[in-house]
Amino acid sequence: MQTLVYFSNDGIQVLQGMIKGGHLTISNFKTLPVETGALINGVITNEEAVKETIAEALKESPHLFKNMKLVIDSSLIATKNVEVPKLKPKELAAVAATEFEDTAGNYDALVVDYAHIPGPAGNNLFCCGVEKRVLESYVALFASLKIQIKSIDVGLNTLIQYVSATRDYKGMTVAINILDGKNLVSLLFENGIYIFSNRSRLLSERGTDAFANELSGKLSSLIQFNKSQKSEYTLNMSLYAGLDEYELNGLRALNFDPDLNLFIIPQTPNIKNGFVMDESFNFGRFIYPIAGFFAGIKPINLFDAYRKSNVIKKELPFEYKALILPAAMILICLFVFGVFFGLKYSAQKSLEESNAYISDESNQAEYMQAKELTDEVSGIQAEISNVESINTAIGTNPNLTSDKLSHMVTLCNGVIALNAMEYDGTTGAIHISATANNEKEAAQYIKRLKETQYFTQVDYTGYAQVAASSGQTSTFGNTTSTGATSTGFGFSADAYLKAGDAQ
Questions:
Q1: Is the pTM of this model over 0.85?
Q2: Which DSSP letter does residue 81 get?
Q3: Contact 173, 189 (CB under 8 A)
Q4: What's the rounded Cα separation, in Å, for the pair 6 and 34?
Q5: Which residues are registered as beta bridge partners of 196?
Q6: 128-150: per-residue pLDDT in tens?
Q7: Potential cystine with 442: which of 99, 232, 348, 491 (Cβ 3.0-4.6 Å)?
Q8: Beta strand pairing status for 39-40 and 77-83?
Q9: Which has the closest alpha carbon to 13: 26, 27, 30, 1?
């Protein structure tokens, strides 16, 4: 039996069960209440309070944390989905480490690991990097309680592995949204393959109209991203974990797409309850520890990576260090003497062979023939050089790809509505016309465009207050709602692409 532990905003979730042949049987589950504020953004901030809770649980059930695997989730976890060729494990580990070199300055001492996930052209690499201080808070806590950690995985990877291993999700284009308190993690799968994920914090009180509006905005961003990809797979279903029926009905009332179905995430057939059915068990609220049982062909284990990062190489004794310099100097002298002796012998032998070769009349005739051929080759190379110059000039044109357009759309963060995008192939300029909720969001969007490093310059003409009408009508049950007129800030910008593919 294996134990999965996840620190949620509602408490410590403990789930025990056994997985065999891709089927999970849950034998026990429990949520241990923890003092508010003891865990913030996946980091243990009040170790004593958490330690006291776990110690009390151990008194009641001594085997509650036996054979334990930990699943963590935090905005401090960096992740990347990378398409890679077939490589050896050591080479894949090197790829995962280098993926975070450009963002290392934003994090404090990253611990990195990777897993395999399905990709459009085969297996992709899911890379994750976690700040060492995040892991240290968990390692120190369980070490003080003498509880052994078998492994540490990240929540996003477990969800991808669960969906990839579940037959019911095969070939589906679906959004899966996980709510943990006010934290929302949304994943987009196209044809059963993980494409994109987004993390955000909801500001409104749960169960309110404002809360439903926020969820609707996040869903709209996923739909817009799916459409911007010009994918052959259309998003037609959005599933929610951690949301109750009342909150879901409020979201359904705002759903503007009649072809999009909204449901509470179901318990799939590959997961069974090995205990007497209890109404208090909520599949969606335990989704992270449940998904943690599906590890994939190469599990992520940040605990092993953390321990390896702490290994300190033993230093040589002082006496040995003192002998290093004299020994190195002797070896260098011997090496230099050997090189000079070898060069002298080789030069003498080469000189004799060269003289004999030059004196040969047949070689002299071949030389004259080769000289004529060389002149002809030089003429051909001049023509090739002219062709290459033309190709180089063509290659300097700005290259507008779907990846760049998709990235520009995701930079909207659900608060910018893109009205139009026009591309001038002659100048490499993309003219953007959009509407923001306020002037600050418009300026921040321009700033995010500049930070992409796609453009040589971004000309922002400022904003103007405009009126926007959401004139759609949606009906749910016997209740009808009509859109209202709101005020936004229209703005435009000209972003000039850098030349070629270098950007």
A1: no
A2: E
A3: yes
A4: 12
A5: 188
A6: 999 898 999 999 999 999 999 99
A7: 491
A8: unpaired
A9: 30
